[in-house]
């Protein structure tokens, strides 16, 4: 795990009953006046799919990670 410092505003923050901690939606536009600290984890494609499924209360979702990476 790494702690990362970014310059994006937090759009929404709340507590997650499912994850038992804080969650936030971070904006896309850089703002040099703001510092947002986050943890980032290195996960494999299958784990990403599981995280998205759990976060959306879905039984099965197909995520083409390569397509997401290609599009940025």
One letter per element, helices H and strands E, the order comes to: EEEEHH
How is the largest sheet built, in terms of strand order?
1-4
Count the E strands.
4
Percentage beta strand: 35-45%
State the helix count.
2
Bin the helical content: 25-40%
Cα-based radius of gyration, to the nearest Å: 14 Å
Structural class label: alpha+beta
Distance between the termini: 22 Å
Explain this structure to me?
- With 72 residues, the protein is an alpha+beta fold.
- The chain is built from two helices and four strands.
- The chain is globular and about 40 Å long.
- 0% of the residues are buried.
Task: Write a concise synopsis of the structure shown.
The protein has 72 residues and is of the alpha+beta class. 25% of the residues lie in helices and 40% in strands.
Topology overview:
Blueprint: E1 2-6, E2 8-16, E3 21-30, E4 36-40, H1 45-55, H2 65-71
Antiparallel strand pairs: 1-4, 2-3
Features:
72 residues; two-stranded antiparallel ribbon; 2 helices; 25% helix
């Amino acid at each position: 795990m790494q702690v990362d410092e970014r310059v994006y505003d937090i759009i929404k923050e709340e507590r997650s009953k499912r994850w038992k901690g804080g969650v936030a939606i971070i904006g896309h536009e850089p703002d040099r006046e703001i510092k947002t600290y986050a943890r980032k984890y290195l996960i494999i494609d299958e784990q990403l799919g599981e995280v998205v499924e759990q976060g959306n209360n879905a039984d099965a979702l197909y995520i083409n990670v390569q397509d997401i990476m290609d599009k940025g």
